[in-house]
């Protein structure tokens, strides 16, 4: 039997979602991989090293807080690797983007897990404005300012293959449950699809408008032909964090929507993507073709509808699928099938096996 130590700072729903599969697959991890899991919440970086000393384990998963300084994270990982050369060290990156500020730890870890990573690992050697392919696109296309924003770091040559997709937001326990509950004739009867297009979004902080605000506002602006047309029933808005629609309204509306438009946020993948699939909505989203992620509900034309990153074709795609319901239903059903398949086949357990063997 192998002991696994999970050291993470659980500060929000995202960090919690990264640990939850270890809980609901605890028995399978024991039965199939002979692993026992011990989770310890960390408050400081120094605790990582202290807990590695205190608790004996063959494998350590480390998930720091995303605000930790990269140089300090590198130093801690370097010391742990020096002290425990035979331990498997798996780094769970807290950054939402396909890029990261923590690639300097690559020489000291066995795997570097991302919620989503570039399919072409050589992209990690590109010099992107802002640190990612997405921010580079925004800088070149819309001249957005990234002088104060950089979410990248240099990947040491030869270590890019240690970067691999772990598990994304879709493994959150609440979505696993929602996927099981939100099907059948009774669900459909209780949640009639009386909203054509849904796109409720946060613009972030009112006092700190950054590229994130500009990009998401452009999505709302692009959807204006639908918002201003009384022939369509829509729930489309962008709001700052102090004036968002109540969560009860958000949930009621998305469950009643035919189409969910889901722009990128800080990272490419969003909670909204998985809500769309859980509630049998057609997901329309900027192309994810450059990424590798799991559960992979992002197969263009099969599980979601891809649009241009500048939203130039988003209205066209919405109108097409509102008029071609049979095609929309095919994609919706495929997306649910792919998502359910991830859980039914315990693909998370397979990912952990790939990490440690």
Automatic annotation (TrEMBL):
It comes from the Bacteria. It comes from Rippkaea orientalis (strain PCC 8801 / RF-1). This is Spore protein YkvP/CgeB glycosyl transferase-like domain-containing protein. Residues 222-342 form the Spore protein YkvP/CgeB glycosyl transferase-like domain. Pfam families: Glyco_trans_1_2.
